Amino acid sequence: MRFCVFSSDPLYKYHQKGEIKPRYWNPEEIFDEVCVFSFCDQDIEPAKVQALVGRARLRIVPLGYPSPWRLWGQRRRAVEVLRDWQPDLVRVHNPWHAGFVGVGAARQLGIPVLLSLHTHYVARRRWERRWLLEALRLFEHYSIRRADCVLCVSEYLTAYAHQLGARQVEVIYNRVYAEQFAVKRRPMPVRPVILSVGRLDPPKDQACLIRAIGDLDVELLLVGDGVNRRDLEQLASRLGLADRVHFAGAVPHEGIQAYYARADIFAMATHYEGFCIPVLEAMAAGLPVVVGQTAPLPEILGDTGLTVPHDPECFNRAFAQLIADPGTALELGRLARSRAEKLDGKEMERREAALYQKLISRRSAVLLGTLFAR
Asked: SS3 breakdown of the chain: % helix, strand, coil, rounded to 5?
């Protein structure tokens, strides 16, 4: 079988960020060939990102960087490739440029198309007030209502998908394989390590966590990189915390488990999310987790951690509570690990493969019915 993907980011960015995850675009190895449409002028060599498609043959088709005056030409190019390649299914990774090109091309040729939704764009607009985000509403309306199925990475996103007229909505969490993060937890040390993983961009608000540790005898380890790093380093210095706030930079996916293993508490203070893979990774590592009330973090965490208002003082009190009661911290970590095992990547991979097969079979049934109707 053949599968086509319209990626929101060029594949070289996946490689640079260390986000090459096994079988990401070939769950349970159900496809023999995978073609990825990439929005850049020249992308990476397929061999360097082969793991994304497992054992399937990988083809990468650069469409050029997205811009308003390029979109129609990119769509025509996508139609040409799809018509020639005849995939069984198309997946599109965002409702903006990829949605306009990928969903439009697939619908034109009668190929079933799945649109995956990773962000709640209304919540993003509340935080990022930019005219471009407002203009992109048109693409969201166009793509979401035309896809055969919208795959949401959290229950939180389903209301938004329905609001924009999605025909069919399915929820499958992002894949985190619990076995990768299995670790024997140590007792809480004298100076615990609080870990946060994520891009160092303003919406992630690591500044909240830096301010939260001020009077606590802890270390804060920030994994990730981004435009906010210098500002965060300066903040730590101004607060006299430079020796206790550590910046690890970006870490490849295959090595990230070592950072969870050395931590004692995990924290996430973010203004908006569609899912939040690091929270589930921390749960799989058996860490007690403290998150803000930003949806869908409480949905992922369930009742296995601490949910607090988005405020440094509230995070500070939660950290102090866990440090003062290490028994509760260990129990929350155990409960988190148990929940992560129920949400294991193997189960999500199975469900994703089953959804793909269902969409492909539905098309086959329609084609067969059309044939007999003649």
From this structure: 50, 15, 35
pTM equals: 0.94
Per DSSP, 173 falls in state P
Where do we find the tokens 């950072």?
259
Q: Which structural domains are found in the chain, ordered by start?
A: 2-176+345-373 (3.40.50.2000), 178-342 (3.40.50.2000)
Cβ atoms within 10 Å, residue 371: 8
CB atoms within 10 A of CB 217: 10
* Contacts of 287 by beta carbon, 8 Å cutoff, 6+ apart: 185, 195, 260, 263, 264, 265, 266, 333, 336
Maximum C-alpha span of the chain: 78
Name residue 91's beta-bridge partners.
5, 114
256/234 Cα distance (integer angstroms): 25
Do 213 and 316 contact (CB within 8 A), yes or no?
Answer: yes
Instruction: Kindly report, residue by residue over 268-313, the tens digit of the pLDDT.
Output: 999 999 999 999 999 999 999 999 999 999 999 999 999 999 999 9
Tokens at 334, concatenated: 């155990």
Nearest to 251, CA basis, from 196, 305, 186, 300: 196
